[in-house]
Amino acid sequence: MFNMLKLNQNKVTEIVGVALRVSARSPFGAKPYHKLPPSSIVNKHWEIADKEGMVAFSTNVILDTKRWGEIDKLILFANSQSEIFLCVCDIVEIFAKDNEWKPNIDEKFLVPEWKDEEKRTWIMVKNFKQLDIDTCEYQLLNKDILLREQILKPRFRSCYVKL
């Protein structure tokens, strides 16, 4: 019994991330053809995180609430508009509802272009870091597929990743 308890105490917990595709989009209230490329969207979030310590990233992707305690990293990627990139940041907190909404977050943590929009999921993140897609060894959770291979597939939106 003691050895079993000791083994459980020494068990290494898997670090999990969620990877989300960043698509070109218009600032809230702008004309649909006024789309910003994915890199600009991520850079706007990154700038606020650098300035304020963290930033709110919003999405309509619903995250599995059973995994919330496991998810430590948010991985943002793009594979459209001739842009291919990958970056990772630390998750501070996740807020979500079944319908679109805007949580009560201090505006300094919101990107001005989207400060009035409503989304289903809001993720507070910090510590952005760019990753090299060619050397990224992250693997999809419960699958023998590397993230770098998966994100290059057209229309691929999101997945959980073992870090």
Strand and helix layout:
Blueprint: H1 2-10, E1 16-21, H2 38-52, E2 55-59, E3 71-80, E4 83-101, E5 119-131, E6 139-140, H3 147-150, E7 158-162
Sum this structure up briefly.
By secondary structure, the chain is of the alpha+beta class. It is 17% helix and 37% strand. It has a seven-stranded mixed beta sheet with strand order 2-5-4-3-1-7-6.
Strand runs, count: 7
Low-confidence segments, given as residue ranges, are 1-12
Estimated helix fraction: 10-25%
- For the termini, the CA-CA separation is 31 Å
Radius of gyration: 17 Å
- Count every helix, treating DSSP H or I runs of 4 or more residues as helices: 3
Whole-number mean pLDDT: 87
Description:
- It is a single chain.
- The protein is an alpha+beta fold.
- It has one domain (20-75, 82-162).
- Helix content is 17%, strand content 37%.
- The protein has helices at residues 2-10, 38-52, 147-150; strands at 16-21, 55-59, 71-80, 83-101, 119-131, 139-140, 158-162.
- It has a seven-stranded mixed sheet with strand order 2-5-4-3-1-7-6.
- The longest helix has 15 residues, at 38-52.
- The chain is globular.
